[in-house]
Each structure stands twice: as structure tokens, then as C-alpha cells.
């Protein structure tokens, strides 16, 4: 992981903490409001690659920003200032690589937003399966105020989350919305009074998910990600394929047997 100075001690810009089946990915650049520099983006991709290698030992991931003021306040503007068009495209590809790693991760990923989730920060949250937020949080895509447009997936995922009309309004105006409005629009799944309750709620959701067959959850996520935004006929075929794949797993046979025998299932993750 890349390091950055924090006082006299070099600390990781991104770190992964483990607590049982829950992994927490922490973006730790509070002095920069956790801005997504190229180094941070590369570290995030590396973090998710490492978690994939652990298989079903990780049943859910929490993504959170350090410091209490921001989840992620945006891309690192200083790193963008002098880029050529080609370098700008490369920067966007790096952001999309992180989003793709999150969407491909075979377990739920919850963005725990406490403070600002703006620009690249909102795009990072949108790549996650769920967005939980504190009442103090704010969301927006302010890129047009810098002469830019969203480059890490905002024009793709924000309309899917809140509808095309509101997405256009937020992207064209660059305005921010609070947690209550974000929840009402369907952007935020659950809202909490403070950071402690936020993280506790995310862990509780992952614990509930972990009671189910890991293979089925992974298949459901695969289909949901692939089918979103596609024509109904294409999405239907993707669901049929995923449903058929479930019949190839030991977990499906165990789940059905447990139901018929009126006992709790003992899923093996295969």
C-alpha cells in the first residue's frame, strides 16, 4: 500500500481491517478529505484484489473514510490539473478499474458515508452495493464547476440510482443534497444518527447476509450487476443463467434439503 505522511509517521493511505467475516477498507487521508489520488485508487484496487483471494472468508466489505469530515470529498484535483487528454482518459480508466473491482467482488460492499461524498467520492459509493450514511452527510457531482464531467462512473451509475431526471439536475448544476434527500431519492439505503451507529448497522447487515449461502449471494450479485440497465430480454437470460448455475452448487442442495427436513442449513460455500 502507498504511504503518506501523517505528522512524523508514514501511514497507509488505504488500509484493510478484518473482524471475523467483515473486512473494512479505510481511506486514510483526512488532511485531504480522503481525496482519490492515483495512488489511493491503485491501493483500493489492490485491496479488493487481495480480499478476492480470501474467497468466502470475507462475507461483506465496509468502505469508509477516516477523519469524520468526509467519506471522500472527490478526486485529487492537484493530480488532475496538468493532465493531457490522454492522461485524463488514463485517470478515468483507473477510477473505473476500482469501480469494476468493487462490482465484481462476490459479496456485498457497503459504502459507509460520514460527511462529504462528492465527485469521485460519490462515484466510489455508487459502485458499492449499498450506501449507508449519517445525517451529517452530503452528496453531489460538482465536476462541471471545474470544467469537467464525472469520470469514474457518475453519468452511468447515478441515473440508475436516482433516475435520469434527478441525475441530470445534480450533474448539470453541481449542487449537493443532504442525507435525507438522498435517502428519499433512493441513493441512500439507510440513514443513521452518527458514525458509531452507521458502522454498527453495516456490520449487522453483513452478519445477516453471512447466514445465507455465499454461493447464492455471489450469483445474485453477479446477475444484478450484469443485468442492470440492459433490455429485459437480456436481463432475463442473465437471470436464467445464474439460476441454472445455482443448481451446480452443493449449497443449493443443502439449502433445499434443510428446508424439506425442517432444520437449519449448513452451507459450505461451494
From TrEMBL:
Question: What are the UniProt keywords, alphabetically?
Answer: Lyase
Q: Which InterPro entries match?
A: ClpP/crotonase-like_dom_sf, Enoyl-CoA_hyd/isom_CS, Enoyl-CoA_hydra/iso, Enoyl-CoA_hydra_C
What single Pfam family name could you report for this chain, choosing any that match? ECH_1
Specify whether Zinc is a keyword of the entry.
Answer: no
Which parts pass through the membrane? none
Against CDD domains, the record matches this protein to: crotonase-like
* PROSITE patterns, sorted: ENOYL_COA_HYDRATASE
Catalysed reaction(s) here are: a 4-saturated-(3S)-3-hydroxyacyl-CoA = a (3E)-enoyl-CoA + H2O; a (3S)-3-hydroxyacyl-CoA = a (2E)-enoyl-CoA + H2O
The UniProt entry, under PANTHER family, shows: ENOYL-COA HYDRATASE, MITOCHONDRIAL (PTHR11941:SF54), ENOYL-COA HYDRATASE-RELATED (PTHR11941)
Q: Which family does it belong to?
A: Belongs to the enoyl-CoA hydratase/isomerase family.
Name listed for the protein in its UniProt record:
Enoyl-CoA hydratase-related protein
What species is this protein from? Agromyces indicus
